[in-house]
Amino acid sequence: MCISSRHTSKLTRQYYRYALNLKSLSYHTVYIKLPDVEALAKKIGAAPTMTEPDGVSLFYMIPIIQDDSTGTIISDSPTIVAYLDKTYPSSGPILIPTGMMTLQLAFSSAVVDAFTPLWPFYALGLMTKMNEVTAVYFLKGFKKLLIQVKENLGKMNKWFEGSDGNFVIGNEPYFIDMAICAFLWFTRGVVGEESEKWKDVVSWNAGRWRRYLESFKPYEKLL
Amino acid sequence: MCISSRHTSKLTRQYYRYALNLKSLSYHTVYIKLPDVEALAKKIGAAPTMTEPDGVSLFYMIPIIQDDSTGTIISDSPTIVAYLDKTYPSSGPILIPTGMMTLQLAFSSAVVDAFTPLWPFYALGLMTKMNEVTAVYFLKGFKKLLIQVKENLGKMNKWFEGSDGNFVIGNEPYFIDMAICAFLWFTRGVVGEESEKWKDVVSWNAGRWRRYLESFKPYEKLL
């Protein structure tokens, strides 16, 4: 298995790393630059993931999964996870249980929305060379934005009162839990694990988000 | 079974009517006025549903379910549905499958958000006597707000691409489907079933929302 990913798209890449590690599938990652995505996708026959706002031009997104053992190439997020479940049903857990795709997509969307206030900081991760003035400008607004994320995660935390375990569906990890973890993992990377900001984040909602990352630690690394 | 409900809270009442009808439970509705909710809740021993923003005062919401056969009184939305499932597991379908509470709460929240632009019109339903000037004022903004709802439902429609049936989880109705239907039902009541506006709504997303209401028609009425 091979993931093609631009070096800047850390968040999405981490997400698929969780998925592949959870399913105990071996893979390697090919890092490509943003302007090269379309050419590579066309070369290996990866489908475009969406149409541009003009309604005609096609848009190619990464990561793309290339499965050497079946020759399959997939480039759309939920489709990739559904493919892994279908092709490797007994390797690791099923990541999207039967009939649960719609609910998982809805929850994914809520996760993305919850972390939206921090997008400027995720964008920071894209800049390999950022001058200090820009950094100060971005970091000035951080406290306010972090309060918004805290509110959003607090709302999400209430939904967990319906769960019997630490995860969305009891104590077994699914597709949707990986989405939460990928955002937390990337946020930790941006603010720094030893920072006061991160210590604040992991104290929210009785430590729910700290526990999330701890539970997924075994699946965090490039295997 | 008895539902206490103020005469104005049509939307929420419809929601529980779907739930009770789907579960083939018999009930009658006691209509109470908004200022009388707290006194009634205290009298019958219904718990407050939330704390006021001051952090001290308690807030009592309706509907409240009073189950004569068990003596139980419940006043919080997901708790009511979970109670019905637990107490009457073999009467009608299970409305929240095991382990699905968190996902259903998240989806519920998305449904509420999707219809949020129309709140002024739901508020219209609260006014028994509204003068014409006010009505015109409200209706002027309708077209714009309806476009927002159309966009929101379009986003939600994409999540359904993951479902094998017409509902959120395949072709069986659950808690979450009733939430969608209650909003659609109430919207239809506000704009009028024969109006051009409603004909527009039911044409969206290849008729998905029209099919929703049709499927739930048998559970719509006071039984």
UniProtKB/TrEMBL annotation, chains A, B:
Entry-linked Pfam families: GST_C_7
InterPro entries registered for this protein in UniProt: Glutathione-S-Trfase_C_sf, GST_UstS-like_C, Thioredoxin-like_sf
Protein name per its UniProtKB record: Glutathione S-transferase UstS-like C-terminal domain-containing protein
Source domain of life: Eukaryota
Glutathione S-transferase UstS-like C-terminal domain: residues covered: 148-219
Species whose genome carries this gene: Guyanagaster necrorhizus
